[in-house]
Amino acid sequence: MQSKRETVLAIALISPSILAILIFVYGFIGWTARVSLSKWKGLLPDYTWAGFDNYAGLFNDARFNIDIRNTVIFTLIFVIGSLIIGLGLAILLDQNIKGEGIFRSLFLFPMAISFIVTGVVWRWLMNPAMGSRMSGLNLLFDNLGLDFLINQWHTTPQWGIAFIALPAIWQMSGYTMALYLGGLRSIPTQLREAAQVDGANEIQIYRYIILPILRPITLSAMIILGHISLKVFDLILAVAGKQLPLDVPAIYMWQSTFDGYFFGRGAAIGILLLISVAVLIIPYLMYTLKTEEKL
Predict the structure, then answer these.
(1) Which of 30-44, 130-144, 201-215, 276-290 has the highest mean pLDDT?
(2) pLDDT value at 294 more than 80
(3) 240, 122 in Cβ contact below 8 A?
(4) What is the dihedral of CA 117, 119, 123, 126, to 10 degrees?
(5) I need a surface site. Which of 2, 45, 146, 248 has the fewest CB within 10 A?
(6) Shortest CA distance to 83 belongs to which of 228, 213, 217, 281?
(7) Model-wide pTM > 0.85
(8) How far is 193 from 26, CA to CA, in rounded Å?
(9) Looking at residue 147, what is its pLDDT?
(10) Has residue 183 been placed in a domain?
(11) What is the mean pLDDT of residues 227-249?
């Protein structure tokens, strides 16, 4: 009788949260999917069935193709850069250096601020102006005699989106550092000692022992960073504003929905973003569950 009461009480306690999730998460996902299949354009709702016309129109849209290209470039540079820098910082901190706590806090600090703040700071750092208006990194390079590093940053034709990834790497590499540092600290010292007894040098120890052990952490970091890159929005607007060469699906969705009142197309872009994130995350969740069951 007591266990039955506890079960009823537990259901009563979590039911408001479940109801809220069903309505405000899955309910709105379903509504967005329905809007994406409609001809709704304008302030007044129009649920006239359009099938997959909005989706087909997107893949035939030159702007959306630019968005996909920019997302791929941004994701590759952002994820790879964050992983490499984060791993490097973790390895350095794992050497038991003096003031480790201070350095660890400094590396993690950028994660505490928003992409908007990061974008505002890096907009000044990556100021593409030349001559007397030169500032930020270009001015630093000029004073140091490193003129070959002076460039137009995000205004560079074709590859401007690659430079937008730099602020994101700066902000999230500390997070990957924390993940890797936790993994390094969990590796038994006996493994290192056994490898050293067998004649392995430090490079071989990291290549054949430590890095394979850190693969689950690398996978987790890739999933987290990947889903952030797919939804990037505020960072680009803060650094460069609305520019077609730097356009991404999230910006296109915002402009289609709230600037152009093309709710059908905006909803279609939102559903495509949801699917892309799901394709990235769901296999990882399934893999994690299978791994936990084996343990």
Answers:
(1) 30-44
(2) no
(3) no
(4) 120
(5) 2
(6) 217
(7) yes
(8) 52
(9) 87
(10) yes
(11) 91
Q: What does the pLDDT average to over 25-31?
A: 94
The amino acid at residue 122 is: W
CATH of the domain at 97: 1.10.3720.10
Rounded Cα–Cα distance for residues 232 and 75 (Å) = 10
Instruction: Decide if 20 is inside a domain.
Output: no
Q: Is 176 exposed, middle or buried (0-12, 13-18, 19+ CB in 10 A)?
A: buried
Helical packing angle, 215-230 and 62-93, nearest 10°: 140
Burial class (CB in 10 A: 0-12, 13-18, 19+), 125: middle
Instruction: Residue 283: count other Cβ atoms within 10 Å of its Cβ.
Output: 11
Host domain of residue 133: 49-294
Q: Give me the residue label for tokens 């979590």.
A: 14
- Own/partner contacts of 283-286, CB < 8 Å, gap of 24 or more, are 284/219, 284/220, 284/223
Token output for 161: 């989106």
- Whether 18 is covered by a domain: the verdict is no
β-pair partners for 49: 38
Q: Which residue has the tokens 């050497």?
A: 95
Q: What does the alpha-carbon distance between residue 220 and residue 223 come to, in Å, rounded to a whole number?
A: 5
- Could you give the number of structural domains in the chain? 1
